[in-house]
Amino acid sequence: ELHLMEQGTFLGFLLSFANNVLMLLMFHLLFVERFLSGVANSWVYLLLGIVQWNLYVNVSLAGFSCMVYRQKIVMGYSFARELLILARTGAVFVPYLAELAIILGIARYFQLPLSWKYLLLPIFLTAQFLFCAGICCLFSVIGAIHKNVIPWWNLTFRLISFATPIFYLPGHLG
C-alpha cells in the first residue's frame, strides 16, 4: 500500500510534502498576517494544522477507495476486511509520521523549545491511528454504497478547511 501510494520513491514523498509547504505559503499569505500576527512561530502551528488536516483528507479518500478499487481482492480472497482498512490507514499514516518528523526537525533547527509533553506523543499517535482507522472504515462503507461521492469529497473537504479554527484566534470568532 505504501509503495503504491508514494510511487515507491523518495521523490514521491517529497512531492506529497511539497503540497503541505505550498498550502502553508498560501495560507500564510491569506491568514497569518491578518489573524495570527500576535502568535509567536505561527507558521509552525499553521504547518502542523495543515499536515493534520491533510491526514484526515487522505484517510477519508483512502477509505472511499479501500473496497471499491480493490474489489477483486475483496471478492476473490477470504480474509478479514479489517486488514485492508488497517493497511490503507497505515499507508496514509506512515508519510504523516515522516512529515511530523520533518516539522520537528525544522522546529529544532529554529531552536523552538521542547517540553516533557513530547513523551506523550506515542500515546496520542496510537489514539490518532485508531481514530483514522475508524474514519477509513466509515468512508469505505460510504464509498462502497455511494461511488459517485468520491470525486466531490476532496473539494468539499478543502472548502470546509477554511472554516476550521486552524486560522482563527478565539477573539476573531466573536
What does this structure look like?
With 174 residues, the protein is mainly α. It contains 7 helices and no strands. The protein has helices at 2-5, 10-35, 42-68, 71-76, 81-109, 121-145, 150-161. Helix 3 packs across helix 6. The longest helix has 29 residues, at 81-109. The radius of gyration is 18 Å and the shape is globular.
Topology:
Layout: H1 2-5, H2 10-35, H3 42-68, H4 71-76, H5 81-109, H6 121-145, H7 150-161
Helix pairs in contact: 2-3, 3-5, 3-6, 3-7, 5-6
Question: Can you describe this structure in just a few lines?
Answer:
It is built from seven helices and no strands. With 174 residues, the protein is an all-alpha fold.
The major β-sheet equals: none
Q: What portion of residues belong to β-strands?
A: under 5%
Secondary-structure element pattern, one letter each: HHHHHHH
Helix content: over 70%
Shape: globular
Measured distance between first and last alpha carbons: 44 Å
* Quaternary organisation of the protein chains: single chain
Q: Would you tell me the overall average pLDDT? A: 77
Radius of gyration: 18 Å
List the defining traits of the structure above:
74% helix; 174 residues; globular; disordered N terminus; mainly alpha
